[in-house]
């Protein structure tokens, strides 16, 4: 059927369910348009689509057919052996009312930019912006003229009738065009080890001069998903960061972003973003997460190798949060 049951939200003060919309049919073909309201199928927050991105997914769980019969060389875990396939992702706004409810499963996602001045370590963020995959979206419709609470909602979108109910303002189109190089999602890397799937999305942020050298910055977003039924906990991270300048850095530490998330059947996923800088225009990263089972035993989950590329550096600096 095209219409799904209505759903509601908890109101903390009265614990009363209140209808906020009606589910629509999932789109098996084609993409969702600007202004599509949705629930996130993994994290449960309300959001609205700003615009789509066409990404290439490099999925190490899909084994390519062996055409020439040659055995793989030892250690051939490089990204060249994995063929990319095109997949639709979306830039979305998160309803700020739902951020407290997802904080245990995800950072309140933000898009970070390099600041427009000489301090090479200065970052600024636009909170409540996320990137979601097509299958993350559970579409719904609402009769509310402002169904999503976010400071950019009314700057970027306007209520229109009859359909679609929300369309892009010129400010959204201008913001997307100006910041395209710094917002664009191009490559997604995915790998599963013992039912724990790790997805990595890297973003180039730009270059800054620092102490007579160039420093190149990237942001990367990581999602861990427990695809099985066993409760596990992330305990440690182990990164290897290779720079084109020839350096190889090892980073070890407890947890991620100060957390040691538990992944269970009820709350199977955790998502976070972090940053890395190199004194070279490219490099790559790979590594492992140390995961602990309830019986105290451990196993290592592979983080798929991903490239850090700066080929957008001939573009203008980010225009960021200006209108």
Automatic annotation (TrEMBL):
Q: What is its main location?
A: mitochondrion
Pfam family, any one:
DUF525
Q: Which GO terms describe its molecular function?
A: DNA binding
InterPro entries reported in the protein's UniProt record:
ApaG_domain (IPR007474), ApaG_sf (IPR036767), Hemimethylated_DNA-bd_dom (IPR011722), Hemimethylated_DNA-bd_sf (IPR036623)
Sum up the protein's function in the record's words: Involved in DNA damage tolerance by regulating translesion synthesis (TLS) of templates carrying DNA damage lesions such as 8oxoG and abasic sites. May act by stimulating activity of DNA polymerases involved in TLS, such as PRIMPOL and polymerase delta (POLD1).
Q: How does it assemble?
A: Interacts with PCNA and POLD2. Interacts with SSBP1. Interacts with PRIMPOL; leading to enhance DNA polymerase activity of PRIMPOL. Interacts with POLH. Interacts with POLD1; leading to stimulate DNA polymerase activity of POLD1.
PANTHER family documented for this protein:
F-BOX ONLY PROTEIN 3, POLYMERASE DELTA-INTERACTING PROTEIN 2
Which GO terms of type biological process are on file? DNA repair; error-free translesion synthesis
Q: Which Gene3D superfamilies match?
A: ApaG domain
This chain belongs to the protein called Polymerase delta-interacting protein 2
